[in-house]
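so my prof wants the structure for this chain in the tokens format not the other one, which i didnt know existed until like an hour ago. anyway here's the sequence
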Amino acid sequence: MAGDDPAAQPPPKPAYAATVRPRSVATEMRESYVDYAMSVIVGRALPDVRDGLKPVHRRILHAMNEQGFGAGRAHKKSARIVGEVLGKYHPHGDQSVYDALVRMAQPFAIRYPLVDGQGNFGSVDGDSAAAMRYTEARLTRLSEELLQDIDKETVPFRDNFDGSLKEPVVLPAKAPALLMNGSSGIAVGMATNIPPHNLGELCDALTALVDRPDIEDHELFKLIPGPDFPTGGAIHGRAGIAEAFTTGRGSLRVRAKTHTEPMEHDKVRIVVDEIPYAVPKTKILEQIAELVKARKVEGITDLRDESDKDGMRIVIELRRDVFPEIVLNHLFKHTELQSTFGVINLALVDGQPRVLPLREMMRHFLDFRELVVTKRTTYDLNKARDRAHILEGLVKAVENIDAVIKVIRASRDAGAAEQSLIAHFLFSELQSKEILKMPLRRLTGLEIDELKKEMEQVHQLIKKLEKILSERSEVLAIIKQELAELREKFADARRTEIVEDLAEVSLEDLVPNIEVVVTVSHAGYIKRQTPVAYKSQRRGGKGLKGATTKEEDFIESVMAVKNHNYILFFTNRGRAYWLKAYQIPEGSRQSRGLPIINLLPRLDKEEQIAAHIPVEDFAAKDHHVLFATDKGTVKKTELSAFANPRVSGIIATVLGGGESLVAVRLCTDEDEAVLATAGGYACRFEVKAARAMGRNAHGVRGIRLRGGDQVVGLAIVRDADMLLSLTEKGYGKRSPVSAYRKTNRGAKGVKNMKVTEKGGKVVSARQVEEGDQLLITTRSGMMIRVRVAEISVLGRATQGVRVIRLNEGDVAVGVARLVEGEVEIGEYQPVAETAPEGEPPEGGGDEEGDDEPEEDTAEPPAAADDEDDEIEDGIYGPGK
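here's what i got, hopefully its the right format
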């Protein structure tokens, strides 16, 4: 039959088939991963809250202690130590053990080193240590405190990896190592990053916590104001510290410590004395060099490392024209001279990972120390009792020495003698053994007295130890005493400074808000200077060289502003940019300055700065920006429209074909405007006559120009003001604004200045005050500083007086007003005024017939003007 065929029978099941169980892959992966994760968490990555050590550190210290590599002994090769640890306790890679050993010996990595290294153990530059065969190590005095009393059954032991030896589960840890040195590590799904603290402060706080377990947090935090990093630095802000102390998590902003030193030629250098924790010094140097190379930080001329055995010293030399505070803030922002330390107080509590506030970490340490002291006292008490028992037997034997000797002599051997002593004198087994070991010299009278004295001392010790175990206050007193001893032996001064948070302090707060002069050349070079660079001179002086320019370049604009003021830049394409005055590099009187394109890098190749105005506050109410073009167009736009410019600029106004900006001024609707032309005419009208428009509008007609004439100046005035006019050949005058009849916007205007071949065309017209001082600039770069009071007040149609004596071929190009402010302007020394030989006194002029009726008469509102307004008021540009 087929059923009887052996080949048709099913194959027999293997022997292991009965032990095979179906199992989900997902379940197996999950449980295996959890087992692996817990193995890493408990066995490798996280410190124990009691002694503050990870297993590898604990095993290194224990192995060194077992081998006798103490602080008072000779250094031993690191390779030998690593071999002991690997062979007995830590079956992992030798490099991981050596790295842990090296870290415990680095004073820049650990606040209180636990290993005393000899040789190359790395540096703060980020250099690695030499190979383990070259370096040597031994325990430090402080690490011996962590191991003290380990032989008194104070901590539990467990089998090592092969069961051949015992290793401590935790060290007795007289010092609070977890808070003292901190810890960092990455486990599976979690990480720890505990900062180091000052040992002296910890001892004070722990003592206070022993005395007052309910002490308030704010009182505790006064004793420990914050972490104390081995590399020093400064923690900015207390909010992150408070959060970390109370919750176990927080973020600390750590900055390098720096100071400035003066150099020759009014230069300054920044010196870095301390850097943030765990940041390699070479990395900081590389980051600074990269910033300079990429032009992200301006003004650094040299960078070098002058660190030596006496301390750290990174030197950053600066140009004369930069503020050290500004450079430092840029470096703090873009390099690891400022770093963030994220606090995660994660440690093992009863084998479970927990995030702990500062108080709980201290509480766990004190509880552990209380247990250690109790176990140590119990151990000492048991030893004392055993010794007292032995001494009682010895004293009794000495007192009955003849009978004891007789019993011993009658015994066959040592064992029989021991039993005979127990039987005859009721000695214990331990006592009888010690009696048999007692040398004959102990039978002298002196030795007998010593035995009795020792027995009395032991009994006193027993009473003391029993009292300690019976009263908790005695245990706490011992803990306090040990903390005081630790403080006296190992405490040092705090290294990390804690300063108030400067997050709300802006860069402007670091820059003195003094008056400065900003000059812009025709070719687009800009610089910042202090007004004291120019001496006050009498009208008619030759002036000082204010800038060195190329032959084809000349100074085009001068602005007197404060360091904190904004400067709005308007380009020939109608776009707007802005800078702070202090962001403009400082230059000497002779220097040319820096190309504006370097400060406003998004300018197009064909784009040039056409006008600029200083602004103190964009939020000023009812303030407007008034534009004027050479074709006589004006436009009024609210100042707030320019408060948020983009890096690429924003649209300021729309210009017609062939039209260019002449001037831009700040104004309100209460002001009046005067448009002045090169041909010597001026139109005065109320600013409110030009309605406010958006940035995309073109504007309306401001003055109706005569043939060939163009607008050269725009002044914002009141009726009582003075208007200063200057010609290209250095003639100027002041005229009262009240002398200019108010007309409608768009009129031809009235005579402003008598234009002659001697004086040349008008180049500037601006409002001035009696106490003002002026900087007059020429095409060749000459500048003269004069008081407005020196310039004569003359009628509208006069030629004016000589204000600056020009060199042959040179012409005046601009006037800037200096406002009396925080800067010392300089004392004015009057000099006698004499007319040049062969020339009559300048100024004066016949005002009769200066106004031609057809040109001076304001044009009444008419259909023609209204039509012009309707055509030119378009939102998106000029009409056809």
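also thought this was worth mentioning. Residues 14 and 20 are 10 Å apart (CA to CA).
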